[in-house]
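Complex 361.
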Amino acid sequence: MNKLTPQPGIMDIALYQGGAAHVKGVENVIKLSSNENPFGPSPKAIDAVRDSAADLHRYPSTDHGPLRAAIGAQHGLAPDRIICGVGSDEVLQFVVQCYAGVGDEVIYTEHGFSMYPILARAAGAVPVQVPERDRMVDVDAILSACTDRTRVVFLTNPGNPTSTMIPEAEVMRLAAGLPERVILVVDGAYTEYVDGFDGGAAVVDAHENVIMTRTFSKIYGLGGMRVGWGYAPKAIIDVLNRVRQPFNLSATALAAAEAAVHDQGYVEHCRSENSRLGAWLAEELAKLGVPSDPSNTNFILARFADQAEAEACDAYLQQQGLIVRRVAGYNLPNALRITVGDEVACHRVAQAITEFKERNK
Ligand code: PMP
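Predicted structure with 4'-deoxy-4'-aminopyridoxal-5'-phosphate bound:
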């Protein structure tokens, strides 16, 4: 044993579990546990990756100018108010690193994304979990949980793993009610699955202390490339850029993301296929007595009678080569989070849960 002492909070972080794409002894496995796009990225993004190989001896852009310009043009946002990160995880990390320190409090909600408490602990801050109501974020509960030590509040809209949507008026009410020394993070990883939703950009525009984060890992199908971005007032972007490594994004990742933004026809195709297949799967599961809230994302939060049934179904799905996500760690012990896959995947899930229900009658 060495005599090194990690910083406060570090040893309280559990090592990340999940991400497995294999089940021992089972063939034809389909991974439906990480909300990846089953159709992959735009073919134009794949071409851009190939083309980027010609310049691999060069360092990539340090200011991500072309990608920020493409994102800005697509969303009607000022490029100088955008920052890009290695996945939106990195942008979230910049926020906590810059604004919370030892002894400060970071608020996240009962079913909030698992990275939030991890990032808080990594900064020596205290993660404070606030209850939700029926899988919906409770703005009043967040406001009353704020103390003098609160520095960051995390929201996910639409939620993961709940898939529920916080109405914009509620997000505005929260932003208006928070002290100005608290930064509100509106995490819009699944924004593009909600037709016409701006991900929280209007809330950012109305306040000095709000940042919206977005990702290329979901509808853009580029989880393997690790690209995310944030949109915030210039003063916040200026702070975050100080801790960003100059070459945080690879040339290949930048090229892929830029090409993907330019192919909105492909995004539209993925959105409509996801909504068609997601609605079908939710309906099939409901017929089997497995309800879910209306999905605003590319996954369904399937609710079982109790924890034992959810665990047994998870085990059965695994035997059938279907990897889904247990969400007991998100205070949802009775539920399984199932990514909406392609046609074949959705039919296999419906079939396997039908069999599971038959066997357990
Ligand atoms: N926020 C939420 C709510 C997510 O579900 C995810 C991915 N699971 C992320 C952020 C991080 O995404 P990435 O780092 O791949 O952009």
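The chain is about 40% helix and 15% strand.
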